[in-house]
Amino acid sequence: MKDIFNITFLIALLSASIRLSVPILFAALGGMYSEKSGVVNIGLEGMMLVGAFAGVVGSYFTGSYWIGTIVAVLSGMLIAALFALITVKIKINQIVSGVAINLLAVGITSFFYRALFGITTVPITVNAFSPVSIPILSDIPIIGEILFKQTALVYIAFILVPISHYIFYKTSLGLNIRTVGEHPMAADTVGIPVEKVRTACVLISGALAGLGGSFLSLGQFNMFVDNMVSGRGFIAVAAVIFGKWSPTGVLMASLIFGVADALQIRIQMSGVSIPYQFLLMFPYILTVVAVTGIVGRTTSPKALGTPYEK
Amino acid sequence: MNTILRMVSISKYFGTLAANEDVNLEVKKGEIHSLLGENGAGKSTLMNVLYGLYQPDKGEIFFEDKKLNLRSSKDAIDLGIGMIHQHFMLVPVHTVLENIIMGMGKEKGLVIKEEKLKKEISEIAKKYGMEISLDSKVGNLSVGQQQRVEIVKALYRGAKLLIMDEPTAVLTPQETEELFTTLKIMAEDGMSIILITHKLKEVMFVCDRVTVLRDGKVTKTIDTKDTNELELARFMIGRELMPIERKQEYKVGEPILEIESLSHEGEKGEKSLNDISLTVNSGEVLGIAGVDGNGQKELAEVIVGLMKASSGTILLDGKDITENTIEEIVKMGVGYIPEDRHKRGLILDFSVSENLILKDYYKKPYRKTLFFDFNVINKHADDMISKYSIKTPGRHAEAKKLSGGNQQKVVVAREIHKLPKLLIAVQPTRGVDIGATEFIHQEIIKAKEDGAAVLLISTELSEINYLSDRIAVIYKGGIVGEMDKSDFDENRIGLMMAGAN
After folding, report:
1. The pTM is what?
2. ipTM
3. Domain spanning B255-347+416-497: which superfamily?
């Protein structure tokens, strides 16, 4: 406990925070696309799980973690397509549908894992991402260590933040998405195809959640275990709210959750005499606080959660 | 002038209901053409056909001599048909610029070139004398300004024909005048405008020609200079307007409702009612005029107990009811015709007979010990249906199956037949046809003559003028002035509605 705040500790903590925030960041960015268009995506958890599983399968059979990642993205989109069909086209309640997607994901990933690999005592391991040092930048003391010695997916996640910001606020595509989420009827009257935009946004959220899942299985653990996402999808949903539906806000929220997670692991390891269950709770308590609305509801897209009917 | 639009024998059916039957409409270039008709006459259906939202079952549309086959509103916009809906199609949290260009990605490119777009839009706005600030959030603009944004939005999309649905419903008289000036400039410039309305005065004032619809059919197309308001009313409702019957002698009595420096704060702490003092006497109608959203809803709801006052007192018949519950207030004899009959006035899934006893179902004679007495309830329903001439398939029909006018009659019947001491009527004839309007007006006058104190809250100045004995004007939650009916002056009230005293 005494040397908990020395510099090596801090570097390790922050570096881990970045890593731990990445799966949440991917999924939360995805969730933001969906929610900006007016579709609440509680199914992020399930989409991540499918991505995590598909990533391992892809990497196992091809030997390439990149192909694994692509398989994860496509699988995330596939299950998102199902979600879009139910919520956008058939207009079933979005929350209920999201819960169903999550349950479905737990079932099919466990089933196919056993169908493909049999019942194993030790999870099979696969080729996975290893850290890439960025020349010059990684030589910067402290910062280089924290930011620029990460895996490729980490860089992709962080680059997606400014890209999303640009799409949302500087392009007509983003304006269309925001309009659909705020006032679908107005969107309809100016000829924006509401259902197409929403479907596309849900697919993007599936792709990104799939990426987030594959980061867990190919960037952190090199394996798949049942239900390995364990709530990160829900934290991502909270991060969207906490981040007030803006890319930079979502980045901040994800980092906060990353730090919280990293901190609780390190406190556990340092042997502080707090029951570890309490520490495990920490990120989730943050989630509850976020969702119960210290941010207020006024900033949410107006049509969030309501299917569009002419 | 040559013709820009011809709609030829358009028919549109919903089930067995003919919303439009054999409708012909012709609009010339540079003309302001009124489409006049009651609610449910088929105006909106016809315009939705023209705007590509509905496909007609029969008939053809020619725009600039080309036959159209519209599949969506996008097709209509691309051809140069613009529509300004009664409820603005604007996103409050977007800037004016964003609202104007939204959905124009194909024409204007993927990346938003802000400076270039702003220049183009400002030029159009200036041409027609409309000042708008492109960086403001639309939610912060007044209704009149928002309407200007809608107009510029349509013009920027290259509209040659502009459809305006009841554009003056939300405006003060002065804003209305400004709008008409703008429309006239646009028409001189060669734009064609279709003005959907049921206000005869406006038709006569601003339009060149008028097409009148009744029950889905065209009853007349005529130049406005060849007709007058009375004749138009006849085309519209198919008979003469009946003047209201008023007793010459009845007496104005004691004060029934006395409001003393009443204030109310909204959720965010903003004052929606600010220090209001009013008195309504037995046997008189106090009309509250004002533009929608200036505290009318709050005033009514605070009195009936749906909202709590933050300060001030409300006396009913001398007793303080400021802290009383809704139930107690209802029992003390307050009738309330709410602004929104769907949300507050009726339970749409309940039958007509159930809706008629919503406030008395637990009382005798409607119940016998624990159970309803359906003989009494049914008889009551039948009595009300015939007395208030409610057109319904029967007493067991769900309220949602009735037309707007008949739904409103159910509310009026329930609130008036018990002879309330105080009757609060908020927009009692909104979205109601002329026949039902006449009827409801007559009932309100009758209630007053029977001794009720009536607080009439309406955004329709003509209604206020028609029914009130005294008139007060509300603006931003405060009363800006009060006058006797004999001092009624539309100009002065219009200015007060915009906050001038």
Report:
1. 0.82
2. 0.88
3. P-loop containing nucleotide triphosphate hydrolases (3.40.50.300)
